[in-house]
Design a protein that fits this description.
This protein is of the alpha/beta class. The protein has a domain of about 120 residues: 3-Layer(aba) Sandwich (Rossmann fold), CATH 3.40.50.300. About 30% of the residues lie in helices and about 25% in strands. The chain has eight helices and ten strands. The strands form two sheets. It has a six-stranded mixed beta sheet with strand order 6-7-8-3-9-10, with helices on both faces. A four-stranded antiparallel beta sheet has the order 2-1-4-5, covered by helices on one side. A hairpin with a 2-residue loop joins β1 and β2. α4 packs across α5 and α5 runs parallel beside α6. The longest helix is centred in the last third of the chain and has 18 residues. The termini are far apart.
Length: about 250
């Protein structure tokens, strides 16, 4: 008897992205199974962040297509695309919190994709169920006691924890992290990666993350994708790779 086949959450089919006459990458393809964690690595300027934005439908592709959660995201109209993006959580190196608002209000913003109501702009007017979901997300990242603190009074590591809470409050099926530790010191960066993947594994979500930290790519990724020279140069299991294999992508 064969084991069950995992659903494919992301399928990228020969996508190309160009800005004018300048090609960022060409004919990139890969598939991500449900619950898989994939590290996307490569030197600065290779198009890692651009690729993530194409996958999420934030940037149109020049060629090829993206199948996202079983739907053709490339051909999706605006509402269908918004509905798809609402099923994805995003964490970036820029925390993008609203400084003057409370931590709890910032986490409530993570529900705007699923319920674009003005009531989710601030926790005092948010529905009770939304406030409870936001508090639960803050508990998961260890910041429930900071719920009423203004976001501009947080440390860098605390801000990133709030950004993670905002990303998971809507119970996403996919989590995308674009250099989530780039603005943090090494100790805080380790804490954030451990927390991020503890939450991701616990929820069984599919994870894609970019990193310049080779050790992070090998430790946290089930697979490693490597961009170089405008194409996908590497697609292998992390267990089959060494640090020297990845360093070649930065030459």
């Amino acid at each position: 008897m064969f084991p069950p086949v995992s659903a494919v959450d992301i399928e990228v089919q020969d996508i190309t992205k160009s800005f004018g006459s300048t090609a960022v990458f060409k004919d990139v393809s890969f598939r991500l199974a449900r619950g898989e964690a994939v590290a996307l690595v490569g030197a600065n300027g290779t198009g890692k962040s651009t690729l993530l934005r194409c996958v999420m439908g934030l940037l149109p592709v020049t060629g090829g297509q993206v199948i996202l959660l079983g739907k053709n995201a490339t051909a999706a109209k605006s509402k269908a695309l918004r509905d798809l993006r609402a099923r994805i959580g995003l964490v970036s190196q820029k925390h993008n919190l609203v400084p003057r608002l409370s931590v709890l209000s910032n986490v409530c913003h993570g529900l705007l994709g699923r319920s674009p109501s003005i009531r989710h702009w601030g926790h005092p007017v948010a529905p009770k169920t939304s406030r409870e979901a936001a508090m639960h997300a803050l508990e998961k990242v260890g910041l429930a006691d900071f719920a009423t603190r203004r976001a501009d009074r947080l440390s860098g590591g605390q801000s990133q924890r709030v950004a993670i809470a905002r990303a998971i409050v809507g119970k996403p099926e996919i989590l995308i992290a674009d250099e989530p530790c780039a603005s943090l010191d090494p100790s805080a960066g380790e804490d954030i990666m451990d927390l991020f993947f503890e939450l991701a594994r616990g929820e069984g979500v599919t994870v894609v993350f970019t990193s310049h930290n080779i050790e992070h790519a090998l430790r946290y990724g089930d697979r490693v994708l490597g961009l170089a020279g405008g194409s996908m140069r590497l697609d292998a299991t992390a267990a089959s790779l060494s640090a020297s294999d990845l360093r070649g992508l930065y030459d």
